Amino acid sequence: MADETPQIKTGGEAVVNALIENGVDTVFGIPGIQLDPLYDAFYHKRNQVRMIQTRHEGGAAFMAMGYAQSSDKTGVFAVVPGPGLLNAMGAVCTAEGANTPVLGITGQIPSDQIGLNYGIAHELRDQLAMSRGVVGWAKRADHAVEVPGMLSEAFTYIRSDRQLPAIFEMAPDGFASCGPVSTLPAAPVSAGPAVDAGQIERAAARLATAERPAIFIGGGVYGSEAELMAFAERLQAPVIDSVSGRGAFPSDHPQYFNTMAGQKIWESIDCAIAVGTRFLPQTLVWGRAGEIDVVRIDVDPRQIVKPEPAEYPILAPAQSGLAALTAALDEAPDRSAHLAACVDAREAAEEELRGLGAWYDYNAAVRSALPRDGILVVDPAQFGHYARYAFPAYHPKTVLGAGYQATLGYAYPASLGAKLANPDKKVVCVAGDGGFMFSAQEMAVAAQHGIAVVCIVFDNAGYMNVKMIQDRRFGGRNIATDLQNPDFVAFAESFSITAERATTPDELEEALTRLLVADEPALIHVPIGEVPWVWDLVKRAPAQGKID
Length: 548
Fold this sequence. Notes:
By secondary structure, the chain is of the alpha/beta class.
């Protein structure tokens, strides 16, 4: 219970106290000279806040991200300023793109030297400006007495409608300063805007006449699974998830369709219902602009109009918006013929996926070994791209990825964070050899803290997505794509991590099943040759811009 009676505390103690009041029980980070008073405060509260020391600041921030993505908690990391924070910012921009609640705590140079460019260790010209180029909230507290109010503001922002990362900084003399510090109550989670009855009425009237509707969902639908199910079954419409909304609607429900099937369904629908999704591929790439009416539910007034305003906008959280829209729907007309045609599209898409051979079989092997509520964390490598579209997901927040930033090296540290947030669930990381080496040093963290993640490394000795683009678009002029890798089994074993090699999908399934039961850190090395090109099946905005 928060006590607003001020007590004399240091700035570091005030920070740790505010974290505890806001439900934080785990912090990822690396200590350093500008953070000494803060880490001393963590020491005194070590029975309330678990400190996970990492081997790189980027690993700390990615662990915080995975911790938050897989739970209803805020992920927190604490790193030194300057190069330490810069190392973490790749993960912070990934969290920003994936709407993930992460608080980054960092230091500063001594307060009387900030901005003078003396050449002090860990000095940046303007660290706050750098942070504000990535996140929407970044502030510095100068004294202990400022900390409770400022961190309450930070957590309020983090727990806003979109749930976004924030950066808090403090100079070492600020962390060491003493003063009367109040304990404020936990910042609330935003309830979002109230449902507008007129918007609901107009959208319901359009859905009443829709003959071939389809529902498209993103990460904004998490927490609204029951309302989504009721709405979908009442509307008798297919549900297509994005890579950020996997598991919100179970993959074995007869009305579920993955992205590849959704592309085929798009060709025939007359009304799209977009819930908690940026809705970019459908609007920018899939075609039929202006032919399909869009009902859109989104909590963010800035996002709901992008990239184009919907004909029937509903500015509301997914939960209340779906509930109100379901209640306003009349008895649905018979849409059985529409659903039957959608099933045909799903079967055609499944046949195309089956045609990818190795990825289809490896995907099935991992799904067979992982329990229904297990968590899969994937890097944006070739298998990861396939899995984020096609890996069956039965529970929310069980297929995690790096969002639109497609940040290599995300998966392994994020999977460690996910396991710490969900100790009773099995967690599997899948990475390519290139991306895994971005963060492979965090195997030391898994070993030291006994974090039982099984990491699968698909190894084709190269940045193969790039190499295949060079083959297809640049006449096979391959440059900077071939890699010299370690012996991954021996490499993992050098960290005292169990490691094995699998050369077929059956071998992978058997090894993964066994290692998940063992419940200890492990690695499976899967050497592969040339593999199918996933992107022929996915319509998406070209990352290189329009090409004539």
